[in-house]
Amino acid sequence: MSKYKVILVEDEIPARMVFRQMIEARADLFELAGEAEDGLDGLALAEAHRPHLIVTDITMPRMTGLEMLHELERKGMAVPQTVILTCHQDFHYAQQAIQLKAASYLIKDDCLSDPELLVRTMEGLAEKVDLHDQNREKQRQLEQKVRSNEVEIEQNLFLDMLRNPAAEGRWLESLEAAGIPAEGVPFRFLLLELDRGSLRFSMDQLEELKLWQFAGVNVLKELLEGMGPNKVVALDKGRFIALYVSERDGRLMPEKVADSFNSFLKMNCIVLQGLFEPGLAKQLPLVKKMAGASYPFFYRSGETVKAREWEEANRFAPVDEQHGRFWMRVVRQALLEPHAGEAALEGERDSFLRQAAEHRWDPEQIKSLYLRAFLDISHFKPEAGAGVDLGAELRSRLAHCQTFLAVHNATFLQFHKLQQLHSDTKKIDASIARIVQRMHEDVGYPFRQEELAASINYSIPYFSSMFKKTTGESFIQYLTRLRIEKAKLLLLTTDQKTFEIADAVGMENYRSFNRLFKRETGMTPSDFRKRME
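Now predict its structure.
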């Protein structure tokens, strides 16, 4: 059983010592959290320790015991169970103590003549503390149940509106009651989801999900209260929507929401905010689309956008075959070359993301592309059977990915696990790996095998042998392929001229670049760009 915290406030040192001994005689039940010599210090102790009981004198310098209790009440703190110790039998003091909710009023001389009187009184008050705590917990549970029911009522009202156009009127009425008019004023719409990668529970645990929905609604309501009238609804699978009307600048609201969920719930969330023109009733179809969108955050999040722009962004197109094959090769090669360096890998990832977002490629096809790239490579790895379970695991992970970056990161993390199952990575020469990383990060540099070998004190034959052992290709083959792949990337994702791209990949002779590109791809750089457009 936990002990009851007590503070003792008494200005006379001898009396304080006696009362301290009385309290410490029941150290099994009471913990003396602190002592003070006047009401001012006692007030500070009460604020710091939040005791269950206060034992205090009345008449003290600077601040009396009664003034201390009054100040606690004025500050809105729950006044603890209090024992007033005094030399006075004056009814005036007793009356004041009762008004300030003091639980007991003892004469010091009575305590001295009956050394157990103070402790007996405190034991009786301890029972009141328990009863008060039990009542407070019941009240808290009741309030939580009421609020939880409110969350469920709001959810059902919104879902009914989504399924049944005849229910739209009831939902608009609930918005009007919350201070959000159906006509005449612009409003803002927040859509957010719990980041499934940061969840500490499974979405299949419905009771657990309900608790987090309740917590999320409370966080959003508290955040939006300072903005103006609002309505918050918890939907399925960790998704929330919120509508609010405000004259204040709300552009930073997505960032504030994400910070609040991280701070209070220790979870990440993905957020978008839509700006709507006046006339909520007319724009309900768009609200419904946004609330039910399959992949609203796949290519963008943490932003504030106009509602119509958001609607356009959630129309996806299939990935055409040529682009699909090209990016499959890029992803596959990036997986095979983890020693290429973070900067180079991030550059390729960002190029893919830009083009995918520009064309609004179907997120399901992007997931499929990454999965196929992983499976293709795992089938050719030694001990390939080990990749079977990892492939199924990746498929499951990708199903829960909400953004492009989550898909990319999940695939690369899974491939890293696959690599750890094999001993091949131990054979990679560290010096050669650094050379390869440098080549990826500065592909435009005129690399020469002789210079690179000398830079790590290798002979040319040894350098050549170790390079092929590490990469699977000769130095010239690897450098050529690297330059051609980079050139393809630039042709697809930039408006640079062909001679500028040749220079960017380390080939100053434009005609040599054209010949090499045609030899490797079967077409000229210009034909490649036209065919892939």
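The radius of gyration is 35 Å.
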